Amino acid sequence: MSIEQIREWLNPVESVLKLEEGKKKNEPKTLPPVMKRNVVSIVGIKRTAGRFLPVSHEGYSNETHIDKVELLGQERAEFIARKLKGMERRAHMSVFRGLIEGTLEEEWKSAFEKLFGRACTIPSGLCVTCWNCSLFGALEAGKGGTFARIRYFDTWSVESTEQCVASLQSEEGMGIGNTVSEDLRGERDSASYHLYEYVKAGTHFPFITIIESPTALDIAGYIQAVRMADLHGYGKYNANHGKFETTFLAVAPGMPRFSVLTLLEEANGDGSAIEKGFKNGKFQYDAPEGAVIKGHESIVSLGDELKGEFEQYIQMIR
User: Fold this and answer.
1) Taken in order 305, 308, 314, 317, is the CA torsion positive or negative?
2) Which residue segment(s) compose the domain that 81 sits in?
3) Which Pfam families match (predicted)?
4) What is the per-residue pLDDT across 214-263, written as a single tens digit (0 to 9) for each?
């Protein structure tokens, strides 16, 4: 599958990401608001490749409990959209910086300062003008911002927590973390260890991501960012945990006529049922069936064209 085969769905990069000169002399360039109407939907399923700790609340003493919710007749592990977006934004920025250095043969900070007026850093030093800020949104206090063009949705485990979560009540029990001093002669107290619940390896989380005013650069960059985030890790303790395998199921122009809840109902506890549903055309979009790209390998190949799309972007903004 080639980007050229879907370019008709997309916007030219200059119509979305071209910078405008500042209104006054020596003012930095700005990224104008984008008012396009088209969207692209990307659907897939993430499978945990190790222990995963989706945590968005305070712990209890020395215990960490994952996010859980009662949904569709059973308790499920919850993976909120904010946590998905946060890690994938950072992965996207890492990909972006690597491309900058590889294309311009210059350290990314100095290149950003020349191109965007500052070295864009997440979360508190955003430049509001670069590709990452355009896609994920940015706000500079007292000066302005840009709305995100990418939309995430909360997701939940296909499997019940009874099946997929290691807890105090499960056969595995809670995980134990230790803090070990270099000086092993010192005494250890209860503060030197902690207990934590975790989602087990092999658990499935379906996802839907929508990109508004999409460009070929956005599609290819998002796919590569997800692949990097999978290896980096999501959730708490992601230096060692939170690794995933993502299977992309479909990319289509227009809005999906289904939700994450629809996918969970189709799965009925079986992660493979969602993939079968896409292969059989069970899930519909605003777009005609023939316009939907299906299959992981076909979708990943779109990400392989990122370098060429990025070179066009750099030529435009320099």
Assistant:
1) negative
2) 41-177+192-233+241-317
3) Csc2
4) 999 999 999 999 999 999 999 999 999 999 999 999 999 999 999 999 99
